[in-house]
Amino acid sequence: MPITVHWDDPLHTIIRCEFDKVWTWNDVFAMNREINMMMDTVNYPVPVVVQMHGRAFPKSGTLTYTKHLFIHDHHNYANHVIFVGGSVLIKTFERIIRKAYVQSMCNIHSDYVETMELARQLLDQDTA
After folding, report:
1. Which of 15, 71, 104, 106 is least enclosed, having the fewest CB within 10 Å?
2. What is the pTM of this model?
3. Residue 42: which of 86, 87, 77 has the closest Cα?
């Protein structure tokens, strides 16, 4: 599968999504369905960590579909997404999406870090 989705920890407090080099927007939709199924198994807020080291966006649909990397429609979504290795391109699209989808994005907090270790440290700070 071009996007692997799994729990990052045995306590099921973080969902991690790892992108292969080549992926499609349909893979992102499948990722979101899997995230929702995983969130169905808990009763507390869960942040999502997206690892995209050196990954490129598909050639079409980026402006239309990038919001699906940020917005998840599950009541257990912590409205927090962390991009590990996220490029300047992702940050640029986030700014565009925040303007275009003000209502959907207003409660979503996003961070950008270079390593999974830094993502975990950031989440540890959030719970401290």
Report:
1. 106
2. 0.85
3. 77
